[in-house]
Write a structure and sequence with these properties.
By secondary structure, the chain is α/β, with parallel strands linked by helices. Helix content is about 45%, strand content about 15%. The chain contains ten helices and nine strands. Strands 1-2-7 form a three-stranded parallel β-sheet, with helices on one face.
């Protein structure tokens, strides 16, 4: 579901799942680490997540798994500058602070493979491998890459065969960027959520890098390594074709 879905929509689905006897629920996550309470408190939709977990457990029919993958790489890199700071039509990039804070990101294909791998696990342990019960009422962490904005920029330069002199590079304080986004949000401009949410994950506290703070479950799910430049090329193509123009 989109971030603008009515707050009670997921609640209704959780109740419906309980009435139908559904045993496992993957709540509407697929992003930043929703087990990180300080991070969630700073981002409005994140503060609601805990209530969904508690509701599922209270109803006592289902178990939940929070699927944490960080931001979607192609979608975020190829979207507006409010996301990862890149404008491919203008060849401009805004670095947050010095652009050196690493975060964990995942490609669309890896998200799909991760969910498939998770739901393909045996419910109960069979031998030495992982099982679904390992993730009962907790989070599952995956990532394709751990990258900073400078890592992304280097990949962009390789893919586009351009030099840094061909780009306009500016810098902005990450905290100021976050506060600007949340102020827009409070003023009724919902696009401010995107600016604030992305900026908050680049804070130097490492909140956006669950590969380090939590560790990854990639191997348990049978996920193979991906090539950064391959998906940078996908992102640039999407950006130039306007695939994400309807999103902030």
């Amino acid at each position: 579901m989109g971030v603008r879905a009515p707050p009670d929509q997921q609640t209704k689905l959780i109740h419906a799942a309980a009435e139908a006897g559904v045993k496992w629920i993957l709540p509407n996550e697929f992003g930043y680490d929703t087990a990180n309470e300080p991070l969630c408190e700073d981002i409005m939709p994140g503060a609601q997540k805990k209530g969904y977990y508690e509701l599922i457990e209270k109803l006592g029919v289902s178990k939940w798994v929070g699927f944490v993958c960080g931001f979607w790489y192609e979608f975020s890199l190829g979207g507006s500058p409010d996301r990862f700071g890149f404008d491919f039509r203008k060849r401009e990039v805004v670095l947050f602070d010095e652009g050196e804070q690493p975060i964990s990101v995942t490609t669309f294909p890896m998200v799909g493979k991760g969910v498939t791998g998770l739901l393909s696990l045996p419910v109960k342990r069979e031998g030495e491998g992982a099982c679904l019960e390992d993730f009962a009422n907790r989070h599952c962490y995956v990532a394709s890459f751990v990258v900073s904005q400078k890592d992304m920029l280097k990949s962009v330069l390789r893919v586009t065969r351009t030099g840094i002199e061909d780009w306009t590079v500016t810098k902005e304080k990450t905290k100021e960027r976050y506060e600007k986004g949340m102020a827009r949000m409070r003023g009724g401009d919902y696009s401010g959520l995107v600016l604030g949410m992305y900026s908050r994950n680049f804070f130097p506290d490492g909140s956006g890098n669950h590969s380090v703070t939590r560790g990854l479950d990639n191997e348990k799910l049978g996920l193979e390594k991906e090539n950064l430049d391959e998906f940078t090329e996908v992102a640039i193509k999407q950006a130039l074709e306007g695939v994400s123009d309807s999103y902030h």
